[in-house]
Amino acid sequence: MGIFKKTLIADRLAPIVASVYDSPDPTGSQIVLATILFSVQLYADFSALSDIAIGCARMLGIKLTENFKQPHFAVSIADFWNRWHITLSTWLRDYIFVPLCKGKKKRSEIYLVIVITFLISGIWHGAAWTFVLWGLIHGFYRAFGDHTKHFRGKMATFIHLDQSPSLHKWMKITTTFLLVCFSRVFFRSDSVTAAFENAQHFLSPSSWNPSGIIVAFEMFSLLDLVIFSFFFIVMQLYHYIERNNTSTWNWLSQRPAVARFAVYVLIVVSVLVFGATGQGFVYGGF
Q1: Any idea of the CA torsion for 7, 253, 72, 54, to the nearest 10 degrees?
Q2: Calculated CA dihedral for residues 55, 247, 74, 237, nearest 10 degrees
Q3: 140, 115 in Cβ contact below 8 A?
Q4: Dist. CA 1–CA 116, nearest whole Å
Q5: Residue 239 a catalytic site member
Q6: Which residue of the set 72, 125, 168, 239 is catalytic?
Q7: How far apart are CA 47 and CA 85, in angstroms?
Q8: pTM over 0.90
């Protein structure tokens, strides 16, 4: 499944995202679409590397911890960091956040430690101001989210949003995903100047015009769009089963042999026939 996500999702999106972020004059709608696609690419690439490592270890009888738990279905930034790159998040918590929090009782002091922890996370990703800004943005997200948690709960009750749990949940998922996408404008941009220009595009209401977004899809060839869409749906079905069962593979093991092996053959043949290659793992840069 790791190779599936890497070759059929991440590596198919990489050149499309690069064509926008490397362009000297992208449109706002192109930045919006490319940033959303970059979030999908980054998840597929990072989690693919983890899946491959976990799978190789499993063949040797070693059970490694889960590292990505469907982070784009997180309902808050705190929830996102409990799902995204879990091993790194846990390390930052245990070796940066907890030691710095010792003796701190004021909420403002704890918020400062949160920001420092995410700042260190940004620097860890690379010696570039874009990564520093990305870390600071997530530090602010995390502190602001905790500070306003009670108020947001009251607002949800006031407008009766909490009476529709499913709608409320999906609104929180969407908001969290868009906040994460905005931060990734800084993560993906090559310079601070470009990052702020791209962020301005991302925040501009005109960039979200549906007609502009449709035009931006011209970045794809028709064949590439069809192939990516199909395998993206397959990945979402995998995630859907995972959300409703402890493991997609355990769920598959309970299906009839014909159905089970049809899925295995689909995955292997799809990688061999449609998989894009030549792109190294993004995580190799860190």
Answers
A1: -60
A2: 100
A3: yes
A4: 35
A5: no
A6: 125
A7: 8
A8: yes
